[in-house]
Structures are given as C-alpha cells and as structure tokens.
Design brief:
By secondary structure, the protein is mainly beta. The protein is built from 1 helix and 7 strands, in the order αβββββββ. A 5-stranded antiparallel β-sheet has the order 6-5-4-1-7, with no helix packed on it. Strands 2-3 form a two-stranded antiparallel ribbon. Strand 2 and strand 3 form a beta hairpin. The radius of gyration is 13 Å and the shape is globular. The relative contact order is 0.26.
C-alpha cells in the first residue's frame, strides 16, 4: 500500500522533535538488508513511549519488546483492540529502499496510528 512520504516525514519529524530524538537515532547502527517484510503490512507508527509488544493479543502474554514514540512498524491486521505487527522499519524516513527488521507481536490499538492521512485512524475502527 502506498503512503504519503511527505506526511510520514512530517509525522516523524514532529514526533522526533517532541521526544528529542534525531533521525539518526531512529536507525540501527548495523541495519539488516531489506526483506519481504517491507511489503507485508501497512505503514504505522507508535504514538507513545514504552509501548509493550506482546506475543499474543492480551495483557497476560509475554512482552516481546518495547517500542517508543515515532518508531515505525508494519501492521498486518486488527483483532479486537489489538494490532498485529510484522516488522519494524529501521531506516530513516524517506530512505529507499526501506529497511525492515522482522518483529512479530501485538500492540494495543490506542498506541498505533497509520502513517498516511487515509490510514491514520485505521486501527481505531
């Protein structure tokens, strides 16, 4: 699915400036090569700090990792109030090709938004 890079860049810039992050801090020191995950899911971003990514869509399941505001992920689907994630974008916004690391887990839908204007509220329906 295509999304507005200009809108994504504006969101990332706003989020980064609000949290004191730099674009360099959004990328890993040794990013992996792009893989098939980049086309699997809808560009989405995390809108809070310390968001738990869980192994199943419930608060009793194991925490796989934590994500922070402005982290960009690939979201696959929604189940109730949970959104399944298939990967985390580790390259700076606007980088082509985009670098996505596999990350499988679930996030509560209140902590995730779509990157593009037409997808922004997707996970809250």
């Amino acid at each position: 699915m295509r999304y507005s890079r200009k809108f994504l860049g504006a969101i990332a810039l706003l989020s980064a400036s609000m949290t004191g992050l730099s674009f360099a801090s959004l990328a890993l020191a040794n990013p992996q090569r792009p893989n098939s995950v980049q086309n699997n899911g809808i560009c989405s971003f995390i809108n809070a700090n310390g968001v738990n990514v869980r192994s199943a869509p419930n608060t009793q399941s194991q925490v796989v990792t934590k994500l922070n505001r402005a982290d960009i992920v690939r979201a696959v689907r929604r189940s109730g109030n949970w959104v399944q994630i298939s990967g985390r974008v580790t390259s700076p916004p606007g980088t082509s090709p985009e670098v996505v690391r596999p990350l499988r887990g679930w996030v509560q839908n209140t902590y995730i938004n779509g990157c593009s204007e037409d997808q922004f509220e997707r996970w809250r329906r």
